[in-house]
Amino acid sequence: VAADPGAWPDRSVLVTDHQQAGRGRAGRTWTTPQGAALTFSVLLRPGVRLERFGWVPLLAGVAVVRALADLGVTASVKWPNDVLVSAPDGTALAGWGVQRKVAGVLSELVTTPTGPGVVVGIGVNVSQTADELPVPSATSLRLVGEGQAGRTAGDELAAGDVDRTSLLASLMSHLVHLDDAWRAGDAAVTALCVAACGTIGSAVQVELPGGGHVEGVASGLSAEGALELVDVEGRTVTVLAGDVHHLRPAPGAPEGHGAGSAP
User: Closest Cα to residue 32, out of 125, 149, 152, 154?
Assistant: First the structure.
């Protein structure tokens, strides 16, 4: 994009059939079997202040949540870049509870002569079997469907019949709608991000870039999309970046949000 910005207009999309050396957070790699996942990148040139770019991965996460809802799957966003669903078999996993990762988002700022943009990489596990997933904390739409077999949507998911092209179209439709409203400054969009974020209300430990960590109860999102938490001394701490581990729900918060990080 930086080398030839004119060739990549706003909302350009690049789709791949599988990943052999996909990049995740903190230099992690990410692979997917051929034809088993929806993996793509989209370039956004929002034309807003750089301080607002922190909302982009959250917008993408909400778009995934909404696209999965169209398939009958309930999901939530783990700040800032994971999408979680309930474990198909309902069992708890150490450090995760009953939540499993079904999709991930990675955003990367790019600077070009025509202005800044952000490349958003999105990956959704679609038809992988348990043996094809890299870690026990991951799941796929197929496995989710097997856990709800008997429902119309569940039968489709369990059979691995989710059409990745249709899922891409649905996800991009939701993302464009959210992005349009966000660029226009619609406060309802940020409210949607807060509502979809399962991290809020949970006790968390955040591993900070460069080392160290902070613990507290996630209380909300800042005006820039950063995570706000109240630490053990009652101080509000704003976290701009880091790997979030859900320790346990706060008193009165919903049960079931687990821990984890991006691929």
Answer: 125
